[in-house]
Design a protein that fits this description.
With 460 residues, this protein is an alpha+beta fold. The chain has one domain: Clam (outer membrane lipoprotein receptor (LolB), chain A). The protein has helices spanning 2-22, 31-34, 96-99, 105-113, 133-145, 170-178, 323-327, 331-334, 451-456; strands at 89-91, 120-122, 147-149, 154-156, 185-195, 201-212, 228-235, 246-252, 261-266, 271-274, 306-319, 346-359, 369-375, 381-387, 393-399, 403-404, 409-410, 415-419, 424-428. It has a 15-stranded mixed sheet that branches. The chain has a two-stranded antiparallel sheet with strand order 3-4. It is globular and about 60 Å long. The N and C termini lie far apart (81 Å).
Length: 460
Amino acid sequence: MANYLFKKIVSICCFLIVLSLAMPGQAKVSKEEADQLKTTLTSLGAERQGNADGTIPPWDGGIKTIPPIGYNGPGSLYPDPYENDEVVLRITKDNLNQYSDKLSEGIKELFKRFPDTYYIDVYPTRRSMAAPEWMYENTHKNALTAEADENTMIITGAYGGVPFPIPKNGFEIVMNHLLRWLGHGIHYEHRGLIIDSSGRISPGEGGPVWFKLPYYDKNGTLENSNGYYMYMFSLMTAPPRKNGEVILALDPVNMAKSERKAWQYLTGQRRVRRAPSISYDTPNTTFGGHINYDDQYMFNGSPDRYNWKIIDKKEMYIPYNCYKVYLEPDLKKRFIANHPNPEYVRWELHRVWVVEGTLKEGSRHVYNKRRFIIDEDSWNIVLSDNYDAQGELWRSLVFHSKVSYDLPGISLGEVIGFEFQRGVYIVQTQTSQFGKDLNHEIIEDDSFFTPENIRRRGLR
């Protein structure tokens, strides 16, 4: 009898364990925890206070406290509010070991490969991230209602703000990046660049791009949301052989449940066709195939092929407030052999989340492991290291972030992609050559982001 009861208890316990693993993770927090977003945490979930030695200051509301003197409105260049700041530290090959614990593996690889030309200029830390009050309010609501299931990678109860401002696991942090504040709409002109080891600049593909972020419709609600967080319409105008081609993509909040919808118009075929391959590790031809589609904007698309875990929360040197990057129109000054000219890149000390994704058993991707460095103030991935099947560092991405005054907030921006195995680097979202920048006031109607609109436009 005792043996029977023991077996019965073991059976019930095993059932409860399996049941608990199958149940959605309870990511929402208590009201007491959520209210920390108004006291010890910033409105988006970062630590409000500075660090012990004062090298990271307290958050005081961000760029809204600094008048954008010289700013001419949406679409114009963003003047540098910190242009009078002086370098407080230069990291070179000679003092690298002293600061290596605050650098990503990809950045240390650049020091290793190019010790005589690569360096980092560190400036005073400016916690410039800001967002509208209504977005802060929605983030507080999300903390109380948003839930995530790590097994199915499905989230519920989130709208119009950071979904998990007090994250409990790596998946939630990755979703915070995907659903980060970018505004309701974005329009810009871009041209991809490819720079080889001799410093020769080869223009890639480019043209105007339109984004719409339905998830951040100020007048919308969770109840009337259509389940999509991003629409993207990209029209190629260069090079001439690509003129008229279009890529249209619609991304749902829950991509593990409902995959990306994508279409492509190729001038040679003269028809609009579905393009399911524009995702994951398909090589992105805009940048000569030197990055994948899910490398764009540091990481986009579905996170469902990886197991995500939090590695650390720490202080690191990251690119931040990189206005100087966007104010120099001469590409030859900015992009030299092997890496961008360090003179133009501003680095600061910030607290970051370190999240690692390892490829799931049975899943396929050219990256066996990805490591993301994520800014605590904005939830942007600012540094990314990607490893091949042999565990070797293959590609690293660097985001030159800045605050867009017309949001306010850190929006899309220039991303540098290093392909170490081929000795080249690429530049995504390069806008400085056009003498203008992002415009967040151009918000197209939903009908703009449809295959029918591509046909109506009568592209050649």
